């Protein structure tokens, strides 16, 4: 059998400043530097600071890939998700998460629009094409389900009238959702219509800071079942599963002055995002040999994703932030969470980069001073 591999990557997408932010006089404080670095500046301090103090207000974060306002939907798909498609056809599992506060661009990245479709449609289109071109494509069946997890309850977004759905473990120990709608069309326009309509069914309630904040996790589950002849000529079915997840807004309950119902939702969201962060963290730090210590039971989300997070799987997280000075606190916490989801190897790389960054800053200072001396 294939070797156990567990890989994860974390990308960051910084969206453009929007009209509301510009009207409020917000400035961009988050910037992409090179292909892998984002710099966040603390807007709270004295802008008349000296050069050195000014530099200490900047924090650099390294990711596998950083996208800014110039990145297209195609760029984001190619760099984060495209390479997962082959694996899913071979029977591996994979998960892509969109993480970040409300309004930061998660749904834009995952669903997108008719003219600028996101990861959902691009992944499915590549998947269908790869199957068509593959040698044993005729034996493949693709189906998809679209659901939300809201306050630890699962609803079918393709058939919201069906009520609450339950998670079941089948005889082989893999997780199934009892009674969920499975669609198997390969027609792009039809898929986009279904997903756009499904997304409108998501639980979206106003909070103090966002008029249409998503309070649920939306999960597009894509299943590829492939019939193969086993060694004894008996037929085996290989199942590869891909989860594309548009997470609930990560803003903290305290920041949005949420009370009562909103506060309960906030607690559920925080709990599942914390459970998710802990799972990814534990998996990437300890490697697949110790996945038994990861507590998937902590939330519905991690239970559903159990197979996809452990064992032979790949995990991609795309963190989202607004570049606006008015979103500093949210951006800071998002960068820290996403950063924590990375593995030790990357962390070591980052430390080295920080050192060279500092050297680069001193080089700047030295050449500035040199120029001043020359002028004297
Ligand atoms: P979220 O799902 O994180 O709450 P949305 O994806 O709904 O945020 O984005 C909020 C708004 O910003 C939407 O109107 C969306 O079209 C726009 N937007 C988000 N990201 C981008 C981007 N990269 N380029 C252009 N517009 C964007
Ligand atoms: Mg959204």
From TrEMBL:
What are the alphabetically sorted keywords of the record?
ATP-binding, Cell projection, Cilium, Coiled coil, Cytoplasm, Cytoskeleton, Microtubule, Motor protein, Nucleotide-binding
Which segments show compositional bias classed as Polar residues? Answer: 204-216
Q: Which GO terms describe its molecular function?
A: ATP binding; ATP hydrolysis activity; microtubule binding; microtubule motor activity
One GO cellular-component annotation of the UniProt record comes to: microtubule
Name its cellular compartments: Cell projection, Cilium; Cytoplasm, Cytoskeleton
- GO BP, one example? microtubule-based movement
What is the official name of this protein in its record?
Answer: Kinesin-like protein
Q: Which organism is the protein's source?
A: Equus caballus
* Covered range of the whole protein: 1 to 376 of 457
């Amino acid at each position: 059998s294939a070797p156990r591999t567990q890989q994860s990557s974390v990308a960051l997408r910084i969206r453009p400043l929007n009209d509301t932010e510009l009207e409020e006089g917000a400035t961009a404080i988050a910037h992409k530097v090179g292909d892998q670095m984002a710099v966040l500046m603390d807007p709270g301090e004295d802008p008349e600071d000296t050069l050195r103090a000014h530099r200490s207000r900047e924090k650099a974060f390294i990711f596998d890939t950083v996208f800014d306002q110039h990145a297209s939907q195609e760029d984001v798909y190619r760099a984060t998700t495209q390479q997962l498609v082959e694996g899913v056809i071979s029977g591996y599992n994979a998960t892509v998460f969109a993480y970040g506060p409300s309004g930061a661009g998660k749904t834009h990245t995952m669903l997108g629009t008719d003219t600028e479709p996101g990861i959902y449609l691009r992944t499915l289109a590549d998947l269908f094409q790869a199957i068509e071109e593959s040698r044993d494509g005729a034996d493949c069946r693709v189906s998809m389900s679209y659901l939300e997890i809201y306050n630890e309850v699962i609803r079918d977004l393709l058939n919201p009238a069906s009520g609450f759905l339950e998670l079941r473990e089948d005889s082989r120990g893999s997780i199934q959702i009892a009674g969920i709608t499975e669609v198997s069309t390969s027609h792009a326009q039809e898929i986009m219509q279904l997903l756009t309509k499904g997304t409108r069914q998501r639980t979206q309630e106003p909070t103090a800071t966002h008029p249409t904040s998503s309070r649920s996790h939306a999960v597009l589950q894509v299943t590829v079942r492939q019939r193969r002849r086993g060694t004894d000529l008996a037929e085996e079915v290989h199942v590869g599963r891909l989860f594309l997840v548009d997470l609930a807004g990560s803003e903290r309950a305290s920041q949005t002055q949420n009370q009562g119902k909103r506060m309960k939702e906030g607690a559920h969201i925080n709990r599942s995002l914390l459970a998710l962060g802990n799972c990814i963290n534990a998996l990437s730090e300890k490697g697949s040999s110790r996945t038994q210590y990861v507590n998937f039971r902590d939330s519905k989300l991690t239970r559903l994703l159990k197979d996809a997070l452990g064992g032979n799987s790949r995990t991609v997280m795309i963190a989202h932030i607004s570049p606006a000075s008015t979103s500093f606190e949210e951006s800071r916490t998002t960068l820290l969470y996403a950063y924590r989801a990375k593995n030790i190897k990357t962390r070591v790389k980052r430390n080295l980069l920080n050192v060279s960054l500092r050297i680069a800053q001193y080089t700047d200072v030295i050449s500035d001073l040199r120029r001043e001396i020359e002028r004297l």
